[in-house]
Specification:
By secondary structure, the chain is an alpha+beta fold. The protein contains 5 helices and 22 strands. Helix 1 runs parallel beside helix 4 (about 280-285) and helix 2 crosses helix 3. The longest helix has 17 residues, at about 225-240. This is PKD domain-containing protein.
Length: about 325
C-alpha cells in the first residue's frame, strides 16, 4: 500500500471590524496533495468557516482564486508561500493565514508512455509518468496516428509514442514497440476469484496461522476501472514474457497503471500469479503467501480482477488482483 494524500491543517485568528479576535477554532485551513510532493503537484486547499465570508487564495506563483475549496497545480519545483484571506460582506479583510507548499523535482523533463493492454486486442495509451514542468499533456501516437482512447490492434508489432515539449521548448519523446496477439479472458473465472476472496475475508482468514477464525471483514466490491489495470498487468505478462509487478514493457507499477486507467485512490496493492489452472487454486496460493494474504485481508474496499490465457507462453495462465481504497 502507498498513501497518496497527505492532509494538513492549520488554524488562524479572524479579527472583527473593531479589531477584536474571533475564536480561531471557527476557521480551519487545510490542504491535501500527493505524499511525494513531486512536480507537477496538484494541491486541494480548503477553508472550513461558519459562513458569510469570502475566501481569497494567492498560490505563490502569481495565480489566485476564490472559494472555500480550490485546486491548483504547481508545475515547477520550488517552495511556494500560499496566502489565504477572509473577507467580510463589505470586502474588508478580517483574517489571513500563510502556509508553505514545497514542490520537489521529479528529475529531468521527459515524455513517458504507459500502456494498458486488454484481452480483447485493444490498447489504451497514457502519458502518465511524464515529467514536464509546464501545463499541457503529451501527444499520444500509435502507428503514426494520434490516439485519445482505446484503439484496436491487429496481431503483430506496433509502434507507440508519447511526444511532448519541455518547459524550455525542447522536444522529448518515449517510443515503444508493442506486441499484439490473441488472448483469452474469462469473466466466470474473475467472478469466482472475487467470490473466494470475499469468502476468505468474511471467514476472518488468519494470514499467520493460515486458517479462518478471525474477525470477518466486509466484502470487496468489483470495480471496472481497477479491472482495466488488472487486465493490463495480466495481458502485459502474457504478451511480454515477464512475471513481476513492474512492467517489462513500460516500467509502470501498480499505482501508475491504476492512475492511467482513470482512478486516484489513497492506497493500492496488487497480487499476481501465473500457471494456476483454477480460481480455487490461485486464491489458495495467495492466501498461503503472507504478502499476498495481507493484501486480500487488507483495509481495501475495491478490487479489480483479470485472468488471461495465452497458450504457448511459459505459464499459459496469468492472474492479477488490484486492490484500492478511495
Amino acid at each position: 500500500m502507498r498513501p497518496l494524500l497527505a492532509p494538513m491543517a492549520a488554524l488562524f485568528l479572524v479579527t472583527s471590524a473593531a479589531g477584536q479576535a474571533q475564536p480561531a477554532e471557527l476557521f480551519r485551513v487545510g490542504y491535501s496533495m500527493s505524499s511525494d510532493h513531486l512536480a507537477p503537484l496538484t494541491v486541494t486547499l480548503r477553508v472550513t468557516q461558519p459562513g458569510g465570508y469570502t475566501v481569497a487564495w494567492a498560490y505563490g506563483d502569481g495565480a489566485t482564486a476564490t472559494g472555500d475549496q480550490v485546486t491548483h497545480t504547481y508545475y515547477r519545483p520550488d517552495t511556494y508561500q500560499v496566502k489565504v484571506t477572509l473577507l467580510d460582506r463589505q470586502g474588508r479583510e478580517v483574517g489571513r493565514s500563510e502556509m508553505p507548499i514545497t514542490v520537489r523535482g521529479s528529475g529531468a523533463e521527459r515524455a513517458e508512455l504507459t500502456v494498458l493492454h486488454a484481452a480483447d486486442g485493444t490498447v489504451r495509451l497514457s502519458e502518465l509518468g511524464s515529467v514536464l514542468y509546464r501545463p499541457g499533456p503529451a501527444r499520444l501516437i500509435l502507428d503514426g496516428r494520434d490516439v485519445t482512447g482505446p484503439a484496436r490492434l491487429s496481431p503483430g508489432q506496433h509502434t507507440a509514442a508519447a511526444l511532448a515539449v519541455t518547459s524550455s521548448g525542447q522536444p522529448t519523446q518515449r517510443q515503444l514497440t508493442l506486441t499484439a496477439a490473441p488472448l483469452t479472458a474469462s469473466l466466470p473465472f474473475d467472478s469466482e476469484v472475487l467470490r473466494l476472496t470475499n469468502q476468505a475475508r468474511a471467514q476472518g482468514w488468519n494470514c499467520d496461522s493460515q486458517r479462518p477464525g478471525g474477525s470477518g471483514l466486509p466484502p470487496l466490491k468489483g470495480n471496472a476501472i481497477l479491472d482495466i489495470a488488472a487486465q493490463a498487468q495480466s495481458a502485459g505478462m502474457a504478451l511480454y514474457g515477464y512475471f513481476d509487478h513492474t512492467s517489462a514493457l513500460d516500467g509502470s507499477g501498480p499505482l501508475r497503471r491504476v492512475q492511467a486507467a482513470g482512478m486516484n485512490p489513497t492506497s493500492v496493492a496488487e497480487n499476481i500469479a501465473a500457471g494456476q489452472q483454477t480460481p480455487q487454486e490461485v486464491v489458495d496460493a495467495w492466501l498461503r503467501s503472507p504478502g499476498h494474504c495481507r493484501n486480500i485481508m487488507g483495509d481495501f474496499t475495491m478490487v479489480g480482477l483479470s485472468y488471461v490465457q495465452r497458450p504457448g507462453t511459459k505459464f499459459t495462465r496469468y492472474w492479477t488482483q488490484v486492490f484500492a481504497r478511495p
